[in-house]
Amino acid sequence: MATMNMLQAVNNALITAMTQDERAMVFGEDVGHFGGVFRATSNLQEKFGKGRCFNTPLTEQGIIGFANGLAAQGSIAIAEIQFADYIFPAFDQIINETAKWRYRSGGQFSCGSLTIRTPYGGGISGGHYHSQSPEAFFAHIPGLKVVIPRNPYQAKGLLLASIRDDNPVLFMEPKRLYRASVGEVPESDYTIPLGKAEVVKVGCDITLLAWGAQIEVIEKAAEMAEKDGISCEIVDLRSILPWDRETVAKSVQKTGRLLINHEAPLTGGFASEIAASIQEKCFLHLESPITRVCGLDTPYPLAHEKEYMPDHLKTYEAIKRCVNF
């Protein structure tokens, strides 16, 4: 075991994958000698050479188009989009090519060996072009997997599983945790199953559901609620697509209440899909309406970032409303 922050865990996972399979290559804007804007790819070019870790032109559509070609021809392509906010120029490539390549070819071709890494979310004073959480856009698309880790241990295990999965994976890294989240991480090779949620804390009065950096937020809210005698069960969804309905439903059937917290805006956020599905499965078990604590329906505001964020205080007040309904 070694103590790592999330950036170091991601870097360690990339080294592990590239050491294991010489077909693996990492590319994106400034990922070479510069190591990327957050330094997640530091020293990869020195270790593996310019043929396996290299800079691309500043064109996201080009990065993913190139990645699709590499993956379809048998390479293990690990593409970095520097900020999730800038993934939208590549939207057509991801939606109409990456996700559909296996289907449209009747299984003859696949982009399954493609992993797209991108930092997402706010909390770093990045303003409205460097703080968005666009996971719900991609959750609508069959043929993709969408994965979001909450800490360094999860980041390494889930990233290695994503790289080795036989489907294209969008791996979204909560940037505000890059250096803030530190933990023990095995230096050896390991994976964490995709599509499986984790019960982080067992409770009996209400289920709190989140992913990525918001797990820390609901943990703080749960600590406050515990002082009021409210027992909170905490579930980390981990994979947005596919998402683990069974684990969430089992928890809600036990607690009778569900609160979903995510950083993206409320309207059309992935919490809406979860709420609809769990209402269908757990209607007769519910003691109160399913509650969403989310970002605001505005562009991400630099000057009002704290007001925008679905923090532990908003979550705590929502927990009390649920329990006292």
Describe the structure.
The chain has 325 residues and is an alpha/beta fold. It has two domains: 2-185, 3-Layer(aba) Sandwich (Rossmann fold), CATH 3.40.50; 198-323, Rossmann fold, CATH 3.40.50.920. The chain has twelve helices and 14 strands. The protein has helices at 6-20, 44-48, 60-72, 91-98, 101-104, 135-139, 152-164, 214-226, 245-255, 270-282, 305-308, 312-323, and strands at 2-5, 24-28, 53-55, 76-80, 114-120, 145-147, 169-174, 182-185, 198-201, 206-210, 232-236, 239-241, 258-265, 291-295. Strands 3-2-4-5-7-6-12 form a seven-stranded mixed beta sheet, with helices on both faces. Strand 10, helix 8 (214-226) and strand 11 form a beta-alpha-beta unit. It is globular, with a radius of gyration of 19 Å. The N and C termini lie far apart (45 Å).
Based on the model shown, name its key terms.
325 residues; alpha/beta; Rossmann fold; 7-stranded mixed sheet; 5-stranded mixed sheet
The 3D shape can be described as globular
The level-1 CATH class of the largest domain: Alpha Beta
Walk across the major sheet and give the strand order. Answer: 3-2-4-5-7-6-12
Approximate helicity band: 25-40%
For the record, the count of structural domains works out to: 2
Quaternary status of these chains?
Answer: single chain
**How much strand?**
15-25%
Q: What Rg is obtained from the alpha carbons, in whole angstroms?
A: 19 Å
Poorly predicted segments: none
Largest sheet: 7 strands, mixed
Number of β-strand runs = 14
